[in-house]
Amino acid sequence: MPYREKTAWLALLAMAVTFGPYFTMTAARFPASEPMPDLRQLGLFAVTAIVEMLILGAGHLYLRRRSTQEDRMPLDERDQAIMRRSVSSAYYVLIAGMILVGCVMPFNSNGWSIINAALFMIVAAEVVHYGVVVFSYRRQA
Amino acid sequence: MIKGSISNRMRILRFQSGEMSQAQLGQCIGVTRQTIAAIEAGKYSPSLDAAFRIAHVFNVPLDEVFQWEVKAPH
Question: pTM score, two decimals?
Fold first, then answer.
């Protein structure tokens, strides 16, 4: 498996085990009408972000130690094409999300609803980004 | 637009060049072994620059490495 596919799997895994529970708990436990700043929500977000950073840091260290000389080669033209494809796919998700969050939600939502919607769209764009990377390497495209 | 598909003879040329490995060929043209595997499998079309480099490594003209065939219209 190419090194960059491994790092994409790592990023997907880190998001699944951190932001998956974050959005589930947010939807189940925290009412959107809580006044700002909601310290419980802020605390949950801080823990989620720190755990994700720790998983990514440890994962990258582990992968780096096990990497071969070929893994340390700079991006070749196919890697760059995959990166371009994944970033442009994620951009459409992000821009659609930001239009929704920035132009539509202020009329009918407030506070943490908007913040969490923005976070969700950023995570969704990242999932698309790394998902396209994994898919492209899997099918050798 | 005319539709076509690209095929290549890289695997044969590698074996004719002293059973050169995909990693060795990749090193010669500056791409990874996985990229060479993807090109050989017809899953990835290399840039013109990389295609010329591959032909140069095998010391053959470009059209001996890559062929383009028109797809018959349905």
Answer: 0.82
Instruction: Give A57→chain B minimum CA distance, Å.
Output: 25
By mean pLDDT, which of A13-17, A24-28, A55-59, B24-28 is the weakest?
Answer: A24-28
For B13-43, write each residue's pLDDT tens digit: 999 988 899 999 999 999 999 999 999 998 8
ipTM: 0.82
Helix or strand holding residue A126 (H, E): helix A112-138
- A139 → chain B, closest CA residue: B43
Domains and CATH numbers, chain B: 4-70 (1.10.260.40)
Whole-angstrom Cα distance, residue B52 to residue A13? 40
A115-118, Cβ contacts within 8 angstroms, sequence gap of 24 or more: A116/A23, A116/A26
How close is the nearest chain B Cα to the Cα of A70, in Å?
A: 7
Per the structure block, which two tokens stand in for A45?
């977000």
Residue in B27, B29, B32, B47 to test binding to A, most A beta-carbons within 10 Å: B32
